[in-house]
Amino acid sequence: MKVLFLIISLFFCFSSHWVLGQFSTESDSSAEHYVRTVLMGEGVELRNVIFLGKKGSLGKFEADSSLFGMSEGLILTTGNVKGAQGPNDSPKKTTLSILPQSGRARKMVRNGDKDLNAISTEPTLDNAILQIEFVPKNEELQFNFIFASEEYLEFCGSKYNDIFAFFLSGPKIQKTNLAVLPDGKTPVSVNTINHKNNPEYFRRNDFIDRKKKSAKSIEKKQNKLGIDPQLNNSIQFDGMTTTLTASYKVIPNQVYRIKIAIADASDQSFDSAVFIEGGSFSSTGDLEQEIVEEIKKVEMEAPPIKPPSSNKEVIKELQLHYDTDAIHLADSSLRQLNTFIDDWKNCGDCRIEIVGHTDNSGTQTYNLELSLKRAQSIYDYFLKSGLSKDQLKLDGKGADAPISDNNSPKGKALNRRVEIRIIEQ
Fold first, then answer.
1. Do residues 283 and 142 make contact, with C-beta atoms less than 8 angstroms apart?
2. Above 90 in pLDDT, residue 312?
3. pTM of the entire structure?
4. Distance from CA of residue 233 to its chain's centroid?
5. Per-residue pLDDT averaged across 236-244, rounded?
């Protein structure tokens, strides 16, 4: 038995595929292989792939999607991909890898990248640069990503933040950074997304010193900080963003290049990483119009509104849809709500049920909280419009009641909704 245990131990020590808990990484294949077999989605023709970086700084990850928000994809890091493995047992994980032997790659890793240096407050090093040349077949380029770092929370608000960007170049586009918040202008970084700034896009995963602490005390601290225990046991990084989407309008059948780049700033301490969801690098038609048409189809196929009866039937139903991780209403939604309130006034003795929903990105706990926040925003609007609390019922279902599949951006968009019903008392 001791011999068998030794053999198994040696296998895991020397294998290039590291597995622990619900998150695993590997880095034993070429950049082109990972891009072609993991990253590429629908509507994109791959032309060329170039990677510049330290050995082990590019690889593939697999995860529990309900835990991490993605089931698999590419990981690009300032350290080594195995450094992303949990549990979170270090407040400042730093994985020093071997520099490339010579040439342009070695110089770039040591001296930084000029494009990253241009947007960083400090000189960059430990660069990992993945350049992809591709041809989109449709007008909307998009992919999903998560940024994570050991610099949370120690360096929030400082100038020593690691830097990353998605530089897109092509017809009438010159190095536009797609790594921005849904507002289209705020760059994603430790300073712009954290427990104080844009917290709706942030997930805490703080290092907790487990020495001489009971499981109960550890769990108590995790709950106090809002940390998912399973995430804390699976991922090393002290904080990360929720799943975000990078997108840009492109010209179909033209050649584009994207430079996916990440680097340490000032020094090589404290690893950071960017995760890109497998199969999400794609180009589609006008996604917004597709969603509108799909919603209309759902509404047309819905049963007609029934008149009031003694069975407390649904008098009217409304669905409002949301961007990824959003909880606030668009102006068009407010207009629909005002019309809905008028219908309620004409109903007589009726109440309103408000139920929030999400897609399947993020953990179960996060999705439940997000769905409740969405429903709460409608609830608050109704209160301001003159309805009383006893006329309203609030609920959140998280991702447990989808109306479409979660395997496509369009399906996810349909599931990000709040359902509002006028029901006879």
1. yes
2. no
3. 0.63
4. 19
5. 92
